[in-house]
Amino acid sequence: MVVIRLSRSGRRNLPLFRFTVADKRRFRDGKFLARIGWYNPCENDMKKRMNLDLSALDAWVKKGAQPSETVAELVRQYRAANG
Length: 83
What we know:
5-stranded mixed beta sheet; alpha+beta
């Protein structure tokens, strides 16, 4: 099964997450099929906080990829902020 989830990067006390499309059996930060955006929880401005390729996300969902609960909530917020 293919999932869309966050993988962690950055450093201690300054996390940066990437939206990745990966096989569910892989580790969180392991091999992935595609990177479709990033998320910085330390920023306050939504434009600097998250960047997401919605067309790639929709294409992967049409192919059967399942977003995690966290990713689904972040996508909902991103769509609401960007219209």
